[in-house]
Amino acid sequence: MSTNDPLTRTSQPTWREWTALAVLALPLFMMATDFTAIFLATPAITADLTPSTTQLLWVVHIGELIAAGFVITMGWLTGRIGPRLLLLLALALYGIASALAAFASNAETLLVARVLIGLAAAAASPAGIALLRSLFSSARHFGIGFAVVMGAFSVGGALGPPLAGLLLEYFWWGSVFLVNIPVAAVAVIAGLWLFPRATNRTTDRIDMTSVVISIGAVMLVVYGLQNFADRGITIPYALAVIAGLALGWWFIRRQRRIENPLLDLDLFSFRVLRILAIVFVTSQVAFMTADFVLVQYLQIVAGMSTASLGLLLAIPAVAAIIATALTPALSRKLTPAIVMTAGMGVSVIGTIVLLAAIVVAPATSLFAAGMTIIALGISPPLVVGAQLMLTSVSERQAGPVAAIQDIAASLGATAGIVVLGSLAMSVFTRSLRITAPDGLDASALDTAVESPGAAIAVAESIDGTVGQELLRSAQDALTWGTVAAYVAALLVGLATMVILRGLRGVELPDDGTDEPMSETAQDDEGSA
């Protein structure tokens, strides 16, 4: 291993490195808020720009699709031009795109701006994480910096809705994007001075065919799965997923044949990376996506208001921030396998508490406790797992590995919503058909079983006993659907704990002792 890899040196960071970390974390925080804030701004955007239904759907989702589709390419560019340059370009593009979105006069302009914001996010994620390898020269300080960056993403996603709500209360919808401009400007100016230059880059030329194939594969799969969750499994969206998987198969075959692959598949010969990629998928399915079913339950069955629900969801968000902040201390005292397995175990306990709250005692305090326990448990494993992925490879490979992590987490979240959501709705539909009142018209029943919201609307439109019985049946059906989703999540969580047994004996780099695994070591392990 070359001595110019940052984690093989042990110098103390100065104010310059800590300031650079703050400059790095702030725009990443703002980018994370964008993906959740856009939902709150949608009604105001609709009223002002009057987009068509299709245009509105693309405005909401295109940024996420672009970010997912381009992340592999951006991971390669991180190694080709260096994380510093790529990050500065991404931040500049982010500021320009935010200005374009803030002052968009029509839906088409806003859509273009959202595409550019997605491109900026796709570049900033792997470039920002890879930059940490150049920024901090000791494993301990890298762990602290990594926790800060991961925390910026988590906090941004959690605070996006309340921040957008505050802005929309006093300003027009463009203010949601306008606040990004000074952040991007400060980050670019300060980054030119503070961000270190990469010392280890690849000289390979990019294979444009692989770029096109990878973008198409990821975007088609994510697009199809998202629409499965929103509109159910239909032929057009199923064909999109199938086409994406076919392109993915073609992409993998091409990477094995060409001399300058966009994604080095030899990385997957490293057992730790294979295990962690799987864990990022399954952990998202188990502990990060069942909440969208719970939100419907709390509103429809528990009768919780939107304001009360917002306060309830803020509690686990704060818990996630605290757990992320404590992770570096835990990772210095415990092995990655222990931290991750214990964290998953804590999240399993939280899932059991939620199940008890749904089935036995639907009290707000129990829901708050269950969601908080899950947030406290899942945050350290995600931080340590991502850190372990990055420190197990050389500095040049950090960008592609960060891209792998992003893709795994994105596919896990999307697949989780589809699988758990479909399971919940299937149980809801079957239960409601069985327990619906006898006096209910067949056409009304067909409408009611489409979704919990539709069932409530039908029940409220029917006077008398039949309407009341349908409302109770819909609430009971949604209860069992929610239970089914969390039982499935519990099983996936337990399976994830079993998978993590493969990390026994694996250590994070320790200052002055252990080094990140080099490419040679990876090849040796893969061929063993």
Automatic annotation (TrEMBL):
Major localization class:
membrane
The yes or no answer to whether the keyword Zinc is present is no
Q: Where is the Major facilitator superfamily (MFS) profile domain?
A: 20-507
GO molecular function term, any single one: transmembrane transporter activity
Q: How does it sit in the membrane?
A: Multi-pass membrane protein
Region described as Disordered: 509-528
Q: Keyword Cell membrane on this protein? A: yes
Q: Which UniProt keywords apply?
A: Cell membrane, Membrane, Transmembrane, Transmembrane helix, Transport
Localized where? Cell membrane
Q: Which Pfam families match?
A: MFS_1 (PF07690)
**Superkingdom classification of source:** Bacteria
One GO CC annotation: plasma membrane
Transmembrane stretches in the record are 21-45, 57-78, 85-105, 111-132, 144-164, 170-194, 206-226, 232-252, 272-294, 300-326, 338-360, 366-386, 407-428, 477-500
The name under which this protein is listed is: MFS transporter
User: Which species is the source of this protein?
Assistant: Candidatus Agrococcus pullicola
